[in-house]
Amino acid sequence: MSWVEGAAGSPYGVHNLPYGVFVQAGRGPRIGVRIGDLVLDLDGAEAAGLLLAGGALRRPTLNAFLALGHPQWTTVRRRIVELLTGQEHRPAVEPLLIPLDRVDLVLPFEVADYVDFYSSEQHAGNVGKIFRPGAAPLLPNWRHLPVGYHGRAGTVVVSGTPIIRPQGQRSTPDGPVYGPSTRLDIEAEVGFVVGVPTSLGQRVAVEDFAAHVFGVVLLNDWSARDIQAWEYQPLGPFLGKSFATSVSSWVVPLEALADAWVPAPTQEPAVLDYLRDVPHLGLDLRLTVDWNGDRVSEPPFDGMYWTPAQQLAHLTVNGAALRTGDLYASGTVSGPRRDQVGSFLELTWGGAEPVKLSDGSTRTFLLDGDTVRIGATAPGPDGTSVGLGEVAGTIAPAQPT
Ligand SMILES: O=C(O)/C=C/C(=O)CC(=O)CC(=O)O
Ligand SMILES: [Ca+2]
Ligand SMILES: [Mg+2]
């Protein structure tokens, strides 16, 4: 049990300890872990010799720490638990705790490459029906490989960053026009953060997932559906998604999610050998989507067809190298019910069925000033809950041209 006030019973107790990067009092970015509603300054802790990570915790991003690898991640985590539970450490550690409301959280790691998958059968089926009416909703490859696209790492932003409405081409009956997107949407997703790199030509086997992936973030793959629908054939998403992708401030280590693994849906037909993961496990993360404060959806992550280990094996099967800070996202998380979908495209069925918010207004896609918050929890040890923080963003008007 932690001696930190408010830690016991919190989804951010010593069973969680997500990593982030904060700025406070005019000082440069520092690495910290969240405990309750406080952040433990790990830069200060390493400087004081309270824990040892070869200086990796004294950097402005998590990347050097992510590169250390699994044994070191475990050693540091155990030491942080000791510091936050042993009364003898309290005099030295307590001065390093800062209330969360006194810090600003920044992007926790420098994003190397960014990939986004398409692994929810419900989402892929719904988008297929909306984008390609009359055609089979799932394309023939979908059950044989985790479909994905490469996104734009440089426009990954931390939760809270305003999202400027993108402008671009959209198709009208009179031909293409240029202007602000009129169908701006969200995609509620889970992102996986790679720590340990590989070299060109090397592949990561499904069973080596935990040796490379450090942890998870919540992710919103903002999507301009009008730009996307016009540009995407045949090469896939481009400017309709590359204008911004938001991630949560906290990276939850996989070690905090040990109790959240559950059997993933049965795959039929059987997958090729390099994709076969035994056991075939997904994560029981329960997402929430709030639109201007109204809960509009609760997407369940445990139904995802492709697992994160399969996604990583596929991402590297051609010999593509991994870099520390690589980020790959699950794809939009949608369950079978309308109140479980991860996009407003699905929630409003392509804009045909507006939703009513509690202020009496209705929505199809996002209006300027709208705020979306995506949160999640997972089961933790001994009946506890693990909080994944949130990824939030507010829509700012398109920039004048
Ligand atoms: O089916 C399509 O043409 C497009 C699909 C998407 O927009 C989804 C995407 O970004 C992948 C995902 O989040 O599941
Ligand atoms: Ca997406
Ligand atoms: Mg995006």
UniProtKB/TrEMBL annotation:
<feature type="domain" description="Fumarylacetoacetase-like C-terminal">
    <location>
        <begin position="116"/>
        <end position="386"/>
    </location>
</feature>
<dbReference type="InterPro" id="IPR036663">
    <property type="entry name" value="Fumarylacetoacetase_C_sf"/>
</dbReference>
<keyword id="KW-0479">Metal-binding</keyword>
<dbReference type="Pfam" id="PF01557">
    <property type="entry name" value="FAA_hydrolase"/>
</dbReference>
<feature type="domain" description="Fumarylacetoacetase N-terminal">
    <location>
        <begin position="15"/>
        <end position="108"/>
    </location>
</feature>
<keyword id="KW-0585">Phenylalanine catabolism</keyword>
<dbReference type="InterPro" id="IPR011234">
    <property type="entry name" value="Fumarylacetoacetase-like_C"/>
</dbReference>
<protein>
    <recommendedName>
        <fullName>fumarylacetoacetase</fullName>
        <ecNumber>3.7.1.2</ecNumber>
    </recommendedName>
</protein>
<comment type="pathway">
    <text>Amino-acid degradation; L-phenylalanine degradation; acetoacetate and fumarate from L-phenylalanine: step 6/6.</text>
</comment>
<dbReference type="InterPro" id="IPR015377">
    <property type="entry name" value="Fumarylacetoacetase_N"/>
</dbReference>
<keyword id="KW-0106">Calcium</keyword>
<keyword id="KW-0378">Hydrolase</keyword>
<keyword id="KW-0460">Magnesium</keyword>
<dbReference type="GO" id="GO:0004334">
    <property type="term" value="F:fumarylacetoacetase activity"/>
</dbReference>
<dbReference type="Pfam" id="PF09298">
    <property type="entry name" value="FAA_hydrolase_N"/>
</dbReference>
<dbReference type="InterPro" id="IPR036462">
    <property type="entry name" value="Fumarylacetoacetase_N_sf"/>
</dbReference>
<dbReference type="InterPro" id="IPR005959">
    <property type="entry name" value="Fumarylacetoacetase"/>
</dbReference>
<keyword id="KW-0828">Tyrosine catabolism</keyword>
